[in-house]
Amino acid sequence: MEIFEQIKDAAAGHEDQISAGIDKLGDIVDEKTGGQYAGQVDQAQDFLRDQLGKAVSAAN
Asked: 16 vs 25, 37, 56, CA distance in Å?
């Protein structure tokens, strides 16, 4: 479990940057696929943001 603790600690304080990266990655995938999987990409982005929130709150 040590790796997860390191990830949580690294994410703490950088939520805005990580969220921006999630958005940018989703935009790239949408661009490369012509938006064919936009719904699934949006779901994945929401899931990642939710996990980010849980990791940060657990680290605090």
From this structure: 14, 25, 12
CB atoms < 10 A from the CB of 55, how many? 19
The residue range of the domain holding 40 is 14-59
Say which DSSP state 13 is in: T
- Give the residue among 27, 2, 15, 1 at the shortest CA–CA distance from 55: 15
Helices (H), 1-60: 2-11, 15-33, 38-59
pTM summary value: 0.79
Give the whole-angstrom CA distance, residue 24 versus residue 20.
Answer: 6
pLDDT digits (tens, 9 = 90+) for 2-52: 887 888 788 888 889 999 999 999 999 999 999 999 999 999 999 999 988
On whether residue 5 sits in a domain, the answer given is no
